Amino acid sequence: MTDVPALKIEHLSKTYANGFSALKDVSLTVPQGGFFALLGPNGAGKSTMIGIISSLFKPSEGSVHIFGTDLLSQPSIAKQLLGVVPQEFNFNQFEKVEDILITQAGYFGIPARESKPRAKKLLMALGLWDKRDNKARELSGGMKRRLMIARALIHKPKLLILDEPTAGVDIELRRSMWEFMQQINREENTTIILTTHYLEEAEQLCRRIAILDHGEIRINTEMKDLLAQLSVETFVLDLAQPLTQTLAIDKVTGLTQPDALTVEVTLSKGESLNSVFEQLNKLNIEVASMRNKANRLEELFMRLVDKNVSGQDSMKEAGL
Fold it and tell me: Fewest C-beta in 10 Å: which of 129, 187, 190, 273?
């Protein structure tokens, strides 16, 4: 089983009754144990792909295998291996938190004597144990998100799909959720596929990435290899003291001063940030902090998926 992909999609197409083609001959392989990003603009086909993997509807053509199990011919076996956290809350709002997990486990034939300890472990890990007797409707939005994750994991799936799991969740809670997801990926070898509009999450968490646009896979590569294709990067330098005159720095692609306490430096490949700091030190200019102006993956994403041009034209403009 170690050589069998967690997910293998081959020549997957989906055309709806109105003639709209949401997926066009998509093939994708996700290895076991990976943390995989599936990105794309709204309408790219992500929801359709997840809907097919979740057995919500059937493809027009193609096949889906989950750990070697054919989803179309053996759906009950494939579903045992899969957990899905959808965008929308779809549990019974009037059911108690712990009961939601126990009920979900029952759908997979797991008896209460096994599901209750598992539910406790998940609820404690996700900070929901003290809410176990509350009705779901009484939870905050962030708590409901965590409950969705706990429900998806109750039957110990080998593949977990997270569809915009942190939408509307504050930064602190997002961080704690990702620490938990990294833990189960690392310790339980759970393969995770993530869709998100928070591209910094994908860059930090995922080792491989696929970008879907207009129903087709445009990019499918290692995250580090994709980021290496970024030709320019802009850094924001926050200064300790305000500048009293216009600044000039050699050997940089671009330099702007939004205000007296901020300098933005754009570097191309081969240009050194160390050189910038050396020049600032000679001018007795102290940098209090530094950050990227934009997430690196976001910069690439916007170049690859341009809503104003076709996918192929976007690729050409990005030089890929």
Answer: 187
The number of C-alpha atoms within 13 Å of 166 and in the hemisphere containing its C-beta is 21
Evaluated on CA atoms 189, 193, 196, 202, the torsion sign reads: positive
What pLDDT sits at residue 2? 64
Please say whether the beta carbons of 293 and 234 come within 8 A: yes
275-307 pLDDT, tens per residue? 888 888 888 999 998 887 766 677 677 766 664
Residue type, 122: L
In Å, how far are 116, 208, 250, 259 from 244, measured between CA atoms? 66, 46, 19, 10
Q: Which helix (H) or strand (E) holds 66?
A: strand 61-66
Which residue shows structure tokens 């494939």? Answer: 78
Non-local CB neighbours of 181 within 8 Å, separated by 6+ positions: 35, 149, 162, 192, 205
Compute the distance between CA of residue 30 and CA of residue 7 in angstroms, rounded to an integer.
Answer: 5
- Alpha-carbon distance 187 to 184, whole Å? 5
Helix (H, G, I), strand (E, B) or coil at 51: helix
CB atoms within 10 A of CB 101: 28
Residue 63, strand partner residues: 10
First to last CA, the chain: 35
Tokens 């193609």 sit on residue: 62
Please report the DSSP string for 248-303 in residue order.
--SS-SEEEEEETTEEEEEEETT--HHHHHHHHHHTTPPEEEEEESS-HHHHHHHH
Residues 156 and 133: their CA atoms lie apart, in Å, by 23
Q: How many CB atoms lie within 10 A of CB 170?
A: 11
Q: What is the pTM of this model?
A: 0.78
pLDDT computed for residue 313 by the predictor:
43
What are the backbone angles phi and psi of residue 234, rounded to the nearest 5°? -110, 130
Helix (H) or strand (E) holding 27: strand 21-30
